[in-house]
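Hi,

Apologies if this is the wrong queue. I'm a grad student, and the batch job for Shikimate dehydrogenase (NADP(+)) from Bombella dulcis produced an output file that my downstream script rejects. I'm not sure whether the problem is my script or the file. Here is the sequence I used:
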Amino acid sequence: MDGKTRLAGIIGWPVEHSRSPMLHNHWCRVHQINGAYVPLPVEPGQLETALRGLVAAGFRGVNVTIPHKEEAFRLCDELTETARRAGAANILRFAEGRIIGDCTDGTGFCDNLLAHDVALEGRALILGAGGAARAVAASLQDRGCEVFISNRTAARAEALVQALGTGTVLDWAEWPDRLGEMNLLVNATSLGMGGRGDVDWPALLQAGQAGLGVADIVYTPRQTSLLKAAQERGFRTVDGLGMLICQARAGFQAWFGVLPDADEASFDLLAQDLARHGLS
Ligand SMILES: NC(=O)c1ccc[n+]([C@@H]2O[C@H](COP(=O)([O-])OP(=O)(O)OC[C@H]3O[C@@H](n4cnc5c(N)ncnc54)[C@H](OP(=O)(O)O)[C@@H]3O)[C@@H](O)[C@H]2O)c1
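Support response: The file is valid. Your script probably expects a header line. Output copied below for reference.
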């Protein structure tokens, strides 16, 4: 690093699970860019202070992850249409003291499903109403899916459906009974992250019909207890690692000037690292 090194990073709490630093620094090496991407643990309530500090310190921008995406949206000076539609921002670009927010979680999620030959059609039930769920819901809706939202805190699910304009809220206790009507189930909560949450997925998946697609956006571990239960039922499953790579490309381009490929080498690098840490 020297005085000309371009700096970016990821803000989250916790942030140590994130493989984004490994991915972006790999792309910097591959494309011979004088850049660095660092993890930035920022406690809830400190996001604005942290962002203004990074702008002042000359950072190009940051990724934003759990739990800051919705607050990041509110703090942006400008927003892309996609971020506005999602009501969340996961990519911030700093330009002339201003913060410009974009949201690539939804397109990253959909691109990854398509790469796994999962059709984006019919009824999609999304668990969660946080930043990532908002983006996934908006993108699935844009691609023609009928969207159902269920969240532990019902008011957040209702606010999301209101923001989307259409969609149906299902009570958190009710969704397992409605699973038989769905083509796709998406876990967009942090349940399963680092083994978090004590959920009896095999019981909750009982009503699922053959042909149900089950996607988990959590990728630490890749094989979450939801995906294990879904595989045992013979459902088609997609883990969250491909989404991580697909959503990261636009941020890298915004900060470092090159659009990297979501190629096998990037995937293998992260998959091997997760395996080394017992997170396959
Ligand atoms: N693969 C990828 O590229 C990718 C991209 C983005 C995010 N993610 C992952 O997606 C997850 C969510 O991220 P986010 O940014 O959307 O976070 P967030 O805004 O903080 O939202 C968290 C969501 O999880 C729910 N939740 C948390 N604990 C729960 C529990 N014990 N039982 C039921 N629901 C619970 C919350 O429900 P309440 O509203 O009731 O609190 C909320 O809906 C994280 O694990 C993150 O790492 C992965």
